Inverse folding.
């Protein structure tokens, strides 16, 4: 964001206009909020007994389903599949890489600038941290 004052001024103006016309001002639409998570996120993941850097990317598949990938330095690339909206701002996926597979669940901020969540190895109830902050915005 190049000019935060301009952004917040524009946002305030848009919200004022929306409220003056009796419209409900929302950051997301129930129909399309999932598409708003698309993008690249830099963050940390618990791996090998420590928090390590991770790059996570979400994309919309041809059939409009959400999929993704992640990269952990020195461990390689992994895939996120079967992603589903559990409730507004919450996405659950299946992760898979050369070390294993399991569940992945994250909660996005209301402005989609980041997420916090966890991953669990298949067959275990352990919840290990995984977060990210949107890149390129």
């Amino acid at each position: 964001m190049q000019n935060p004052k301009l952004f917040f001024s524009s946002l305030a103006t848009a919200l004022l206009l929306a409220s003056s016309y009796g419209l409900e001002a929302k950051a997301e639409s129930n129909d399309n909020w999932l598409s708003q998570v698309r993008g690249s996120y830099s963050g940390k993941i618990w791996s090998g007994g420590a928090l390590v850097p991770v790059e996570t990317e979400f994309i919309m598949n041809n059939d409009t389903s959400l999929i993704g990938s992640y990269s952990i330095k020195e461990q390689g690339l992994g895939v996120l599949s079967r992603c589903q909206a559990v409730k507004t701002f919450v996405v659950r996926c299946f992760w898979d890489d050369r070390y294993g597979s399991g569940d992945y669940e994250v909660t996005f901020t209301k402005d989609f600038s980041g997420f916090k969540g966890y991953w669990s190895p298949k067959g275990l109830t352990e919840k290990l941290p995984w977060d990210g902050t949107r890149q390129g915005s």
